[in-house]
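From the shared-data thread, chain only:
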Amino acid sequence: MRKQMGFRWNLRRLMADRDMFQTTDLVPKLAEYGIHLSREQVYRLVTQNPQRLSMDTLAALCGILQCTPADLIKVVEVRMQVAKPAASGESATSAVAPPSRRTHVRRPEGL
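Structure, as tokens:
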């Protein structure tokens, strides 16, 4: 077993704890902190694990939700299974696949 670190993004849960159920609720609150994101960007920030996040945005979220970065980001250990090399001499690595997400494609009206 090989150890790899990952994280759990708790923004949606923290918003719900504060009776904020719409991602659009964050747009004006972030703007008060000088963070101007589109509705789509805020939606992705709430619903997906961010791979990059500016410190200004993190600080604004902490201010809005009255929390700390540790409340927003929970570091977790991800266990990776490393397979032994195949008999033919090829090396094979097997990792636990992340859970898949269902994708919805929305087309603009009139097309």
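The mean pLDDT is 84.
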